């Protein structure tokens, strides 16, 4: 379960329906062109929190079918609706996903006891492994070392997707839990996570920039940190431009320009601004995407 995982993009049409053939194309280009080790399915990059339960199941099914054992699969099942999280978690488990993941419950100010119960319920009902998804900037939930200690006591909690800028906590987690999986969740800070000893990374830009991310990982593994920084600088130049144009919109348009039907975004998220097509084409050329 170590390595590079794309947070899978999902193509939608103008009516908000999944473009199933397009999704198959996105899965294949991640595996065949970007060379990722796995897919993180139905996360933020898949616009998961705007989807119906049936849509989530469809995405899980198609990603599993199209991957066909060529890459590891992590199913993000977290939801503010615990019954839905359990339902889709059972579905992904039956399909054969290698692990579940779940974002911390959000919006309401849940206590840690409630958060812990949420994870335990999903694990007990599905009997699958769990990767905690810690992303405090979006959920408002920041967990400390003592709380991670409690969660990691459960042997089914095999790791964490760590999308947090607190690198002191990351270092403490790595030292205390050498046998738990820690995935870096910030693409723009990949090298810092690798130097801190993470086991891999999960991110949205790997859908188009996976090869460069793998290069950073390989260079750090070889002890060539200076060279890895050079590649991270180039990566961050790209990420900066993508963010300026709109993250998910631009990632999808890059794929569309390459002949992969990545569709548009699900409303209320805006679609790509067609006046920026020239800038995207320039990105593709400048960064050899």
What structural category characterises the helix and strand content? alpha/beta
**Number of separate structural domains:** 1
Query: How many strands, what sense, and barrel or not for the largest sheet?
Result: 8 strands, parallel, barrel
Mean pLDDT: 97
| CATH level-4 homologous superfamily | Aldolase class I
| Helix residue percentage | 40-55%
What is the chain-wise order of helices and strands?
EHEHEHEHEHHEHEHEHHHH
CATH topology: TIM Barrel
Question: Would you kindly provide a written description of the structure presented here, covering whatever features stand out?
Answer:
It is a single chain. With 289 residues, the chain is of the alpha/beta class. The protein has a single domain (3-210), classed as TIM Barrel (Alpha-Beta Barrel), CATH 3.20.20. It is 49% helix and 13% strand. It contains 12 helices and 8 strands. An 8-stranded parallel β-barrel has the order 1-2-3-4-5-6-7-8, surrounded by 5 helices. β7 (181-184), α8 (190-195) and β8 (200-203) form a beta-alpha-beta unit. The longest helix is centred in the last third of the chain and has 21 residues, at 225-245. The radius of gyration is 18 Å and the shape is globular.
